From TrEMBL:
Record's protein name: AAA+ ATPase domain-containing protein
Domain AAA+ ATPase: 123-258
Pfam families linked to this entry: Spore_III_AA
Keyword vocabulary terms for this entry: ATP-binding, Nucleotide-binding
Organism: Deinococcus xinjiangensis
Lineage: Bacteria, Thermotogati, Deinococcota, Deinococci, Deinococcales
Keyword match Chloroplast: no
InterPro entries: AAA+_ATPase, P-loop_NTPase, Spore_III_AA_AAA+_ATPase
Amino acid sequence: MITDITSRAEYEAILNILPGKVLDLVASRIHQVEEIVLDKGQNLRLKIDGLRIEYPLEVDDDDLKYIAGKVGKFRGDGRRGLSGTLHRISAGFDEKHLVDKITVRVARAIMGVAEPLRPYIEQARGIAVVGPPAVGKTTLLRDIARIRAEVLSSGLLIIDSSNEITGDGDVPHPMMKRIRRFKVAGPEYQAEILKLAIRNHGPEEVLMDEVGYNGDVPLLVSAANWGVSVIATMHGSIIRDVLENPPLVPMMGVSVDERTGGYVRRARPVFNTAIEVHGKGQYLVHTNLSAAIDELVGGGNPEGIKVGRWPEIPEFQKAS
């Protein structure tokens, strides 16, 4: 069963940072709001239950200063969390390095989204979670972490860049209470923290969000060769997109064939399982990632196993 365990205090934490005109608009529906988008001189925009809606309320300097003053100094990656919550506040800056836009992402602690995938999660030796932005990868990753912690206990370490997975503050979010986490101040420090965690704390498995852009790929490849399994999210709609993203290719065990110019698999992937996130509650699982990659580089299209709430295809469409 999927359960939202987000507390009232977590929702109040968001309401407490909002200027009056925004607060008046969202207070009664904060349980439905996913994003609050504030760009200086433009109308306020909300994302509610997947729909983006624009309101005739112009965002001004005072609105941005109010939020920035409430959340405190943004980190080098332009992000900030709220202690005890999973929420994320992201800032954009003008040429004078003054805040001219803010995105408030209202995160929820959702338990059970990974339960339909439990048999694959429990048996996996490394999982690649693939999906485009805002499709629910991090929400799924948290629940995967919960299940893997049941299997490995303290053998699972989370490398938490910007505290996206376990939340801000000195203590992980209650949903992540069984997790060992290593906080990372910003993405640029991710590789160094990963190296120290593997070298000094002997994990059986490491779990990370959004890998491939901060020097972490060689370390993850080495970790897999040392017997440490890896769970990580990567941007892309399907596995083929990962193969077409050069920073991520080494984790797929693939390199360029100098003779043909195409890809060839020369090693085992870092992961043995891949989960494509196609929508909320819609997953395509590849339980043998090596075979799926071999099929892809050979020009094929691996089918995978559909899990979750996939719409039925009408018979006339199947026939065509």
